[in-house]
Amino acid sequence: LISPIPFVEFVDYENDQQLTFNRFTNTPSPLNAWVPWRLETRRTKLPFPQMPIFHVGDDMVNDHATKVHDGGTKVAVTLATTTTVAPPLPLQEHLLPLSNLDLLLPPLDVGVFLCYANPAPTAAVLKEALAKTLVAYYPLAGEVVAKGDGEPELLCNGRGVDFTEARVEGAALRELRLGLVDEGVEMLMPNKKAGVVSVQFTRFKCGGAVVGCTFDHRVCDAYSFNMFLVAWAAAARGSPAPASPAPSFRRSLVAQRDPAPPLADALVEHLFCPRSAVPPPPPPPASDAGGGSINRIYRIAAADIAALKAAAGPGRTRLEAFTAHLWQLCSRAASSPRQPCCMGVVVDGRTRMFPDGAMKACFGNVLTIPYGVVGSDELGGMDLPDVADDVHRWVAEAATGEHFRELVDWVAALRPEPAVARAYLGGTGGPEAMACIVSSGVSFPVGKADFGTGPPAFASYHFPWPGETGYVMPMPSARGDGDWVVYVHVTREFAKVIEEEPTVFQALETSYVFG
């Protein structure tokens, strides 16, 4: 096997230099040796039929996420083998520190899954392309370890990515109830036990397949994983040139200033706090029958998105209008008229810190989460344009290069103590608030996730976690018609309000996904 990627970038971490070498030359380098891509295979013995249990490692936040099944026919998934796919270059083992912005993330796994109709890509093609892609994305083949002070860092050791092959004998792909995530999707996600990324390839009797991926959020955000996904798909298609710029792992782009100037305002400390300052969680209710959070996927028609944007007033974006509408729905789900409702929005800082595009290929986390808090009674009485104006105001305050630089400096001064985003804690509303976070996935490159047999019929991110803070992620429909699919992790009460609202959120029918 010869890799189609002739130029590979590595980083000199001591001097923070990114080095490029041509592995087809004899340029002296400890990394320019070439060996065929390698696989280490181990059998996974499971009783048949077996419903996989969602498990992501002993130290992960969503390790204990409750699985809720809402009835219907459960599809039996048989796991056949788990193969470790390693990059083909013998990487010199080294430690890669997480950036100051990476350290804002808790140990949390995020997933993405893609559904391919017949003919679907094969496991062999996916594994071969994965090995090639891990040359440039070698940190994804490593492991997160703890330093002496407890901080996480990335061990780049070429361990590889666990790739599980599974099959479903008794059902076709179109029989999945994708909208009911806890029932239809959990079994298709990999059982990540080690490493940074895990993959599960599930083949159905109809010839269709689902590719599920789970990755450690401490290592990368959705923007970064999208880069990897596009490169992986391009390698599977045999593209002669890289589909996107080589990923950059330079930490200097998000390094603290020396000396760090004093904070210009209190925004950073309004949005983040040391983890030691977080109050203990309230005791669980005596009985949570019918309570807890659930996971759903809905769809929104392009016409309804446009109507929502128009109703939010001039100058408002689709995401601002959507967030404002969701915030108002949050007020209807509140447990009391005076309950605070906290709404946050994830903001990417790449273009804010470097408008010239210098961070376009930056791999890692470059995120902040501004938020607003309004009482449910007041919020319910506001018009949509007023709510959208409020969303625009607090998002704009944080969407600046200076805010991100101050955030980097603040984290550096706090280390090694970890920090946490206040939006997940209810913001200034405190633990009594009903909180929800919106993370835009509208740039998700669903059309570029073509592994050689065509783009997916459906794709979505997947974010189950044990907290009751809501998490909502709109993404483009794979149909390419301007519709959105929206992943929703919310309380049952919030989901009920969403489903009773007739004008925006619609059920995800099988006929919509697979025709």
Overall description:
InterPro entries: CAT-like_dom_sf (IPR023213), Plant_Fungal_Acyltransferase (IPR050317). Keywords: Acyltransferase, Transferase. Pfam families: Transferase. One of its GO terms (molecular function) is acyltransferase activity, transferring groups other than amino-acyl groups. The chain has 515 residues and is an alpha+beta fold. Helices cover 23% and strands 24% of the residues. It contains twelve helices and 23 strands. It has helices at residues 123-136, 181-184, 222-237, 267-271, 302-311, 318-332, 350-353, 376-380, 384-398, 401-414, 492-500, 510-514, and strands spanning 7-12, 17-22, 39-43, 78-85, 94-97, 109-116, 143-146, 152-156, 161-168, 197-204, 209-216, 272-274, 293-300, 340-345, 347-348, 367-368, 371-375, 419-421, 434-438, 458-462, 470-476, 484-491, 506-507. The chain has a seven-stranded mixed sheet, with helices on one face. A hairpin with a 4-residue loop joins strand 10 and strand 11. Helix 1 (123-136) packs across helix 3, helix 5 (302-311) packs across helix 6 (318-332) and helix 6 (318-332) packs across helix 9 (384-398). The relative contact order is 0.15. Residues 1-72 have low confidence and may be disordered.
